[in-house]
Write a structure and sequence with these properties.
This protein is an alpha/beta fold. The strands form five sheets. Strands 3, 4, 5, 10, 11, 18 and 19 form a seven-stranded mixed β-sheet that branches. It has a six-stranded parallel β-sheet with strand order 14-13-12-15-16-17. It has a two-stranded antiparallel sheet with strand order 1-2.
Length: 352
Amino acid sequence: MFTCTGYAATAADRPLAPFTFERRDTGPDDVRIDILFCGVCHSDLHQARNEWGGTTFPCLPGHEIVGHVVETGENVRKFQKGDMVGVGCMVDSCRECESCREGLEQYCEEGFVGTYNGKDRRHGGDITLGGYSRSIVTDQSFVLRMPVHLDPAALAPLLCAGITTWSPLKRWNAGPGKRVGVVGLGGLGHMAVKLARALGAEVALFTTSESKIADGLRLGAHEVILSKDDDAMQKHKNSFDLIIDAVSAKHDINAYLSLLRRDGTLVQVGLPNEPLPVAVSGLLRKRRNFSGSLIGGIAETQEMLDFCGKHNITSDIEMIRMDEIETAYERMLRSDVRYRFVIDMATMPEKI
């Protein structure tokens, strides 16, 4: 074991604060990473404040991790000291069920082990502690190789926001000849626009904010549609092959389902706190599909990173200091970020 420093919440009603804890030593199959940058996901806030229930405290968030390999176990062949690598939302799974065997560890029948607030079954059942820290030790099978020619800070959000939108885009064959809609321009939505455009699809962004029209076009949307404009929405009925809905607040899902053409699919990747009522008749009449998608497997995450490396795709970020995390959370609640906060781990104190 070795001593590590990070920022953690010790209770749901307490702010994140400096925290000292023990990491496991590097095992035979492990990679030890000194963390350079960690993205800030809305899930971090939900977990730290126990808004989903089930949070184990102390809770140390962070699952968009980029850093350098500083040590490898004796069985590690994929990575070596000095490599630029990443760790996303998972650090383990059962590796034996049908989903795991198919490279879909996010749907593991036993439940994947989250990078934080997960039960590390392979290492004594300890609760995992995430990337708001100076270092992490992770099994090589859940470590990813990062494109070395791109800004590592701007790559960090790809490990959650990027793969969360890439997985359904690939699953439903977004590409040339397909019309893809993206609902909401936040951390997830802005990556969906960039990736869908790079895949060759015709991309339309739906937003409630006129102030985001210019950004939507800059990020790659061919068209930006104000969803509160009924006439504008009516013009696009029965016209989309695929819609990626990245909104995590309560909204009228039927307004977007009606825009799908026959056999079109709306994929929900945002996670609202309340159920979304669905008018089933709208699905039946056009054989439309309403689906969901959760992050992505390790192989497809690496595929996404390689694609982003080839096409020079990164996230639009705002860098923050570690001690600015609570301010970042409050701004995130107001949607006051374009489009992802990333923590510079050089600002983390070495000792507390």
